[in-house]
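User: Good morning. I'm curious how zinc ion would be positioned relative to this chain. Could you predict the structure with it bound?
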Amino acid sequence: MALLKAYRNLLRLFLRPVCPGCGGARADGEKLCSWCMLRLEPCRSIHLSSTGASIRQGNDAPADNPCNGVYVHSALMYRGLPGEMVVRLKFGGESHLASVAAWLIKEYSTVLPSSDELLVPVPTGPSKRRKRGYSQASLIAARLAPLLECSVLELLERDDGPSQVGLPLLERRSNVRRVFRLKRGAAAKLAGRHGKIWLVDDVATTCSTIHNASLALSEVYADSVSGLTLTYRGRSGGSIV
Ligand SMILES: [Zn+2]
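Assistant: Good morning! Here's the predicted structure, ligand included:
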C-alpha cells in the first residue's frame, strides 16, 4: 500500500504541468506558476505610434488617424518574464510560447478587439522568417483570434530592411519607413469592410514599426487602426531586433 502511494506521488510529480515561463511546476488549470505571475508588470500607458509618446489611460485622446499616429496598446512591460518570453519566442525557436503570449494579452490588455474587429499581424522580414521558421506576430495573432472570437488576416508583407540594432530613435523610424507593403489581394479582402483593424506584434519599442505598418494599411483602408502588443519596451530599453 505504501509502495503504491509512493508510486502515485512520483507519478503526480512527473505528470505535474510544467510552467512555460520557468520550467517549474504549475497548478492544474493555470497558465503560469505563481512565481512567474509575480514577474508580470501591466503596461499602464498607451502610446502614439507617430512619436512614441505615452498617453495615460483614461485621458481623452484624439481620434485614431494613421498620419498623426495610431494608438498602441501593450499588455505588459517588457522587463521580467515577458521580455524573456519574447527573446525565447524570437530567437530560441520556442513557438509554443505564442499561445501563452496570446493568453497574456487577453488577460492584461486593458483594451481588446471585439469579435467583429480584425487582427493583422505585423510581418517579419523574409530572412528572419526563414531563419526562425515562423513569424512570431503571426503565431500570436493566430492564437489570440480564437480567444477573442475575432478574425485574423495576413494583409502585409515586409522587406528585410537594415538592422535596427543599437540605432537611435530617428534612425529606427526612418529604417522602417518603407519596409511594409500590402500583400497582393489585400485591398480586395478589405473592400466593404468597416471597423477597427488591430496590428498585432510582440513588442513595441519606439512604436515606429506599428506606425509604418499602419501607413501601409491606410493606402486602402480608411477606418480606424490600432496597435496591440504583448510588451512595451520603451525607448530607453535599447533594441533586441
Ligand atoms: Zn514559472
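The pocket of zinc ion is lined by residues 19, 21-22, 24, 32-33, 35-36 (CB under 6 Å). Residues 1-38 form one domain.
Let me know if you'd like a different ligand tried.
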